[in-house]
Amino acid sequence: MTPSKFDPAFALVHDGLDPLPAIPLLVGGPPSAETIFTIHCVVEITQRSCGEAALIALNTGLDGDRLAEANTKTPTIVFFDLPDSAGRGLLLAAKVPIVLVSGGFEQTARYCMAARDFDMVQAAQLVSQSLCCLAPLRHHSSVRRVQVDRTTSIPDWIDEVASWLGLQRNDWQAERLQMLVAYADWATVGAAIDGIVPHSRIPAAPQDIDAASSDLLFNAMAASYDYDPISAVFWPASLILKPNGSAMAAGAAIPLVGPARLLTYGPYLHLPAGRWTACYQFIVDEHPAGNDIEFDVMSGGDVLVSNRVMLENSGKYGFECSFEIAEARLPVQMRAILAEGAIGGLFEPLGISLRRDELSG
Amino acid sequence: MSKLALLPRLHRQPALATPAAEFARGGARQIVVDGLCKSYETPLGPKQVLNGISFAIGPGEKIAVMGRNGAGKSTLIRLIGGVERPSQGTIQRGMSMSWPLALGGGFEAAMTGYDNIRFIARLYNRPIRETIERVDDFAELGSNLLLPVRLYSSGMRARLAFALTLAIDFDCYLIDEVLSVGDQRFHRKCHEALFVERKDAAMILVSHDINIIREYCSIGLVLKRGYGKVFDDLDLAISIYDTL
User: pLDDT at position A3, please?
Assistant: First the structure.
């Protein structure tokens, strides 16, 4: 077998990039078991049909060089899960077929917790980053969106994946049969995922308190990030971090007495590029002397907006501000800072709601 | 000066006499400030300077009062010293308490330094000759004590006030940034007399000097916009004050 089996269209010369004859397919998706299984199958079919195959990641930094290096005689599958705006530009400019695997927030986050030994906050951070980075690709005409159906039979699945590579059954009949034999233990895609991808078996129901809280969290996050487009997001208090790095417990209040200091930060979640309005909701109590609290929004290392408010009465408040997110790959945090020493008072974060005012990127 | 002219001023003296009178009555050996409030009428309406300040100190305890300018520190000292009356709340003085050091007022400006010393000595029931000698020795005002106090510079008044305070030997001293007045030599002398020779006395000390607070005080009262909180952890109080 040789790479010549691939559709010659893959060797197109296109704007901004040299021809990429050795790259038959770009495959991406959130860091889920389904995405990993899909990439696994793409690589295996390429390997069986061509005799060899390589796999490289396209993420950030020097992605153009990576694509050029990958463009050797060895058929190379490029995969991506966190492409920044430059990376997405390269993907679309390459004019190589792009397959984007869909994935839900909760399932992906649970897989990340198991496979990467993440806590629920780390998992939420990674999944939000991936979904926001992938969001601009969802509706692009050159992108094929794929929903991995766990009930699909293995032969159907293999044929479908092969078709993305421009392969018909006749093109690789013998290798296809060998692959079906190799996968004979699994009747369906779901069974194959569970058999091939480590940690893919996700508990069906919460088993303990941590699992129950992650269930609540991921459901809330799914309500924000599983929508298309992502335009209204709520970051619950359990994602807001205390200065010691731990997440806020539900209903927990921070005593304000003490010197000026950072009260909360994080959650280092991600937002698609665009104009956003955020509202940091909180309760303050028992502060007759009043307290100055500063709120700021940061994307990466840049402060996007910063404001200070004097709170003289107990009650429930929302601090609202607008800002522009230029790069979805950079984490966003909203900090609450006690701007001057306090002799009393309590501060209880309730969460941060975000509304996307303009689409961009 | 006629006696009639002096009368209105003498009527103001109960403010200074109150602590002494309360001391004479005896009671628990501590100063208890409870729910102290003070407001002033201004052209813009009543201005609340202090709101529900409460704390207590016993013999030998030293409390630092910290806060930004306008937080109500000097008002609190004047209320505790009896120079002004609170709008609300009580002050129980179970120890003899000085008038606020660094307070320029309280002297009869028309009277000489000597006469003021005699007056204060009588007021606090101290031997007059001994008190004069102690004040003269400490204040180093010499023949200036023969002049009316109105002719004194602010530094001279501060020296006279400080020397008188020390001569009376109070159980508790109210100190409002007194260490910032006078020249360096007098400054050191005050420091020695107050903090070394009277190290067993109680003190309510207003100061912006963190080093002095840290060295001599054991607890801190932080005032913020008229409200206050006492901290047994002095370092915490200082860290709050540092960022007010």
Answer: 38
